[in-house]
Amino acid sequence: MAIRVKTTRRKVFEHEAPMRVVAVLGGELTEEGRWLDSELDGALVRILKETRFKGDFGTTLYVPLAGV
């Protein structure tokens, strides 16, 4: 399966995409991540707390969210 990556200067929700990527630094969402979290009613922050994910170098947390 081929994956095509396209960067943009728009907000994460301003166009359709099968996956969204946001950075987590020291367990905190970046500004873009906080914006996305507010659109998801705090789901990302809840998941970060539950999993204790810190976003350390080389780590990835895949979060499937229906309808996102």
UniProtKB/TrEMBL annotation:
It comes from the Bacteria. This is Uncharacterized protein.
